[in-house]
Each structure stands twice: as structure tokens, then as C-alpha cells.
Design a protein that fits this description.
Rossmann fold; binds flavin mononucleotide
């Protein structure tokens, strides 16, 4: 498969970055064609500009500034996201990637005011994420990022496509053992992608 792996963490020595490298390596070892997109390394600008907002519904112009990112997304058969949960959501750089790249004509069409998903080239979605808080505390908050993946992103891709949500909660109290176990779990999922 051709797999776009998108990563959003600023620290090279972070556990999250290690998860990204591990994901890419294991997918490549399994014979997949991997497009590794490190948003910080590529200095992606997450800000939707005034001109982009004005042209948001203009299919001729709305992705002119991010056409390379749109091409990479539309060339993929599968999408993998590797990021930490920040303020019960995506890091701003990843949120901005959705805001600017997942525009009308790319991930959905607006037909008579109704959203009609079109990102049907994505036949599989896997999320690798880490939380500082416990699963219970996060559940009390409604776990918004899990819902965004399981409901919003799931709805945009090919209907019925498998979605996996691999999460290490409670990283504030993580041990070498729990990190290694999660890394192994991620590797095993990539081996049989
Ligand atoms: C700006 C910021 C906001 C955060 N917000 C949350 C949060 O809302 N919920 C949570 O469980 N952890 C939160 N965390 C903790 C991160 O999820 C945690 O540090 C990260 O998953 C650990 O990965 P790392 O060690 O690779 O950075 C936050 C951390 C930062 C820096």
C-alpha cells in the first residue's frame, strides 16, 4: 500500500518521535511505500489565511497554497497519524493541516449545503497517540480526540474502511515497560498493516 504517515511533535528526542520513526520503519520493512510527513520538520504553516478562507469554497483556488500536501493525501491508500494529545485535541500544527488540506473538493463535497465525504482513496486509518492523563480522567472529559478520529475522520474516508486507535494513556506515570509494550503493539500493527 501507499501510506501517508503524518507526524506532529516538535521534540526530536520525544517518545512520540520515536513512535513515528518506528511506524515508518516497520511499514517500510513490510514492503509498503511510505510517505513520511513530519509537519514540524517540513515547517508546515497551520494558519488558514484570509485569502484561503475567502476562497474556501472555490474548488479552482482553495488548495493552491497547499497543493503539494493535497497531492500527497490523494496519492495515499492509507493514512497513519502519530501525535500527542494536547488540550484534548490535536497539536495546532496538525489541526491546521486538517483545516488547510481537508477542504471542499479534497476530503468532501458540499451538495445543496450537505457535506458529502470524498476521501475514498483512504482505505485504512491508523492513529498512534499518547495522552498525559489517565484513560478514566480523559473519559470524564469525553475524550474529544478519540471521537474526532472515530467519528469525523472515519466518516470522510472510504465507507467501512478499518480504523485503529492505538493510544498510550497516562504517559505522565509511564514506565520503561509500558512504553516498550506500547512500542511493540504499534510495531505489530504496522507489521500486519
Ligand atoms: C501543550 C500540551 C497540552 C497537553 N494537553 C493534554 C491533555 O489535554 N490531555 C492529556 O492527557 N495530556 C495532555 N498533555 C500531555 C501530552 O499528551 C503528553 O506530554 C504527551 O502525550 C507525551 O508525549 P511526549 O513525551 O512524546 O511529548 C499536554 C501536553 C502539552 C505539552
Amino acid at each position: 500500500m501507499r501510506i501517508l504517515v503524518v507526524h506532529a511533535h516538535p521534540v526530536a528526542a520525544s517518545f512520540n518521535r520515536a513512535l513515528f520513526h518506528h511506524t515508518v520503519e516497520r511499514l517500510m520493512a513490510a514492503g509498503h511505500e511510505v510517505d513520511a510527513l513530519d509537519l514540524y520538520a517540513e515547517d508546515f504553516d497551520p494558519r488558514l489565511t484570509s485569502a484561503e478562507r475567502e476562497a474556501y469554497h472555490d474548488l479552482e483556488k482553495n488548495c493552491a497554497n497547499v497543493s503539494a500536501h493535497v497531492e500527497r493525501l490523494l496519492a495515499a491508500d492509507a493514512l497513519v497519524l502519530v501525535y500527542p494529545v494536547w488540550n484534548y485535541g490535536f497539536p495546532a500544527i496538525l489541526k491546521g493541516w486538517f483545516d488547510r488540506v481537508f477542504v471542499p473538493g479534497v476530503s468532501f463535497a458540499l451538495v445543496n449545503g450537505q457535506v458529502s465525504p470524498t476521501l475514498h482513496n483512504i482505505r485504512k486509518l491508523v492513529v498512534v497517540t499518547t495522552y498525559g492523563g489517565t484513560r478514566f480522567r480523559t473519559w470524564l472529559m469525553g475524550d474529544p480526540p478519540r471521537k474526532l478520529i472515530g467519528r469525523m475522520l472515519r466518516a470522510l474516508i472510504k465507507p467501512g474502511a478499518p480504523v485503529s486507535y492505538l493510544a498510550h494513556y497516562n504517559l505522565n506515570l509511564a514506565t520503561d515497560q509500558s512504553r516498550a509494550a506500547f512500542m511493540a503493539r504499534v510495531g505489530a500493527v504496522m507489521d500486519r498493516f
